[in-house]
Amino acid sequence: MSPVNPFDDSAPARAVVDATGRLREWNEAARGLLGYSPGAVLGRPLADLLVVGGPPFPDRDARRWSGSLTLRHRDGHSVSVWAMAHRPAGRDGAWVVVVPRNGDSAEGVAEDPLIRAALRQSPCATMVFDTGLRLRGANDAMARLLDVPARRLRGLRPTDIGSRPQHTELEENLRRVLDTGRGHDMRAFMKAAGESRGAHAWSARLAPLADGEGRVRGVCVSVHDFTEQHRARERLQLVSEAGIRIGSTLDVTRTAQELATVCVPGLADLVTVDLLDRRDSADGRRPPGTPIRLRRVARASAEEDTPRIAGSGRTDDYPAGSPQAESLTTGHAVAVPPLVGGTRAETSPGAGGRDPVGPHAILSVPLRARGTTLGVAVFTRFGHPEPFTADDVLLAEEIAARAAVSIDNARRYSRERETTLTLQRSLLPRALPTTGAVETASRYLPAASSGVGGDWFDVIPLSGTRVAMVVGDVAGHGIPASAAMGRLRTAVRTLADLDLAPEELLAHLDDLVVRLASEPGERAGETGTTCLYAVYDPISRRCALARAGHPAPVLVEPDGRARLVDLPSGPPLGIGGLPFESVELSLPEGSLLALYTDGLVGGSDHDAESGGALLSEALAAPAASLEETCDRVLRSLPRPDGDARDVALLLARTRVLPCEQVATWDIPADAAMVAPVRKQVLDQLDGWGLREAAFPAELVASELVTNAIRYGSAPIRLRLIHDAATLICEVSDSSHTAPHLRRARTWDEGGRGLLLVAQLTRRWGSRHTAEGKTIWAELALLGED
Predict the structure, then answer these.
(1) 529-569 pLDDT tens trace
(2) Which one, of 56, 45, 58, lies nearest residue 81 by Cα?
(3) HSE (side-chain half, CA atoms, 13 Å) at 758
(4) pTM: predicted TM-score of the whole model, two decimal places
(5) Which residues pair with 218 in a beta bridge?
(6) Which of 182, 378, 558, 593 lies most in the core, judged by the most C-beta atoms within 10 Å?
(7) Is the peptide bond before 640 cis (omega within 30 degrees of 0)?
(8) How many angstroms separate the Cα of 642 from the Cα of each of 249, 635, 647?
């Protein structure tokens, strides 16, 4: 490649003028044009070299200027030239002034074989550069794009024509083609100087031009406008991106925000999403002319300083005739061409929201899914907008349709989740009962992503101040799991009233689950569940536990040591035919028992074993209350976003009933002993300060002891328990025959005892024991129900 020769008569005169109008650079071609050496002009105002007035390009907002100048030669005569001026990058306020040599003559163009070959072979905007990177010629198509006559461009380099990065890139690629002799392609997205429309996508082919001996003598640059292909590819990419990004969750607001975000700036500068109220509709039910009320749920803008539109969560009325109202009423997209000037009432919500000030184009697209109108997405272009084309409308409708389905799915999911949560919470205990056996606290967290599950817990007071605690987990999610949970919780309460041992209760529950699974419409696994059942007696301080495939509980002893209870796992409920085993523990007063479901300890960032260790550590830490302990456990074992499992946690701290509050008598099987027993009961009540309960207690004890003597078998034992506001009377014997409440006929001599007991007590019942049975009755003390 021949070196650039600054004394070549084809080199342009070039000068740089700073922001104050003084000359800072002056090349040899400029010296040859006006006769001044660099030392004679550098630092002088450019106005000194002009015959009339100052430089015509002082506008700081302008980027480019071209026109005629009359300059003063060193020897005094005037020189009329055509000049170009543009702002270089990185030199704030400066101007580069270029005067092409031989600019007013087209001589040599027709004779130049390089130009003839280029003009003959190029069907598009074409220009030819020589080995000095100077423009030797350009066809009319290229001159129109550059907005400069072709004859004025001769001798200019790309960086003389403009200061954009693309001009520098073109020079570098021209050198590469001259050096290698191989063609090169470059692409740019920019607005040509001669275009009034927006930026276009351009593809330039740089091809070497060789002489007859194969020597590269120049480069032909052919420029093609491939804007339509570029935009089609961008549309396809936007549709693909929308399919990936929209609907990533089942959250209405987030899905709407994904729609707004994915379309900025590819389709619009500002996108808003407004939804109708669930009970509202634009499908022909609204009287003509009635404003449409919409709630803003999402907004995305290409610029932070965009004029504010009604913020998220705000509700506005859009009048009839506005793009939003029209698109919702007709069910079709409504495109408004660029508007000049501020706010238009027909496009602004009546509550005061405003459109962007200045020219802007609007496209309003209804969001419809499954025949229902959900809301509207509004796409806005501002600043220097282009109108929305038919292809833009099709693209917006395609993306809006996909988003509408996702929003509708999210709404349906939200409604089902809300219904399921309501059902779930109605089936769970609203408040745990207060008992003298344990102090309790609980937490329930629904699944974050896949719907409410079937986790449940319960605390069930039993006879003799004992208490049952249960935690279970039904497989599956949603309403079916909640319904199955409700049936099983009811079954557990019913079986608990029979005072069954934990392993027996689980066996009966297992049979029930097997029967439920065999019912028509039930699918395998939907009614499968795990369960942990425990019974604690505050008098004996013994706790019996059994589990069916459920995580073992954690026991924290009064000294703070925490451990998993060694408890046989047992099969999950619903397997059928397999036995369950129970374990009995002696629990000191103040022991803490934690019952939970596997959603608490199993997480994406830890396994069940490490989760169990975290749980034990959180339980063992000192706390002012069980409620505080529950909160610390949930903080120590956080669930990741989108966790598909719900969590149930039940904490119980044991209490002990002092022996002074329990009185026991062994009674001979002799009816004559009933009177002494009544005397002993009265004496004991006096000792406890319960004289007000003497009459009903005496009658109940008398009737129960009489029935045991008459229908039971020795040995017979009477036990009174004073538990806070309750007095419990228990009579045990070795017979396994349970009593039945019946209504005595007029001539019957007996049969009224249990009826009398039922009338005098809060509740009564019987339970089977290893030695026989126990009949018990609870009396509410004064001031209690």
Answers:
(1) 899 999 999 999 999 999 999 999 999 999 999 999 999 99
(2) 56
(3) 12
(4) 0.58
(5) 130, 209
(6) 378
(7) no
(8) 9, 17, 13
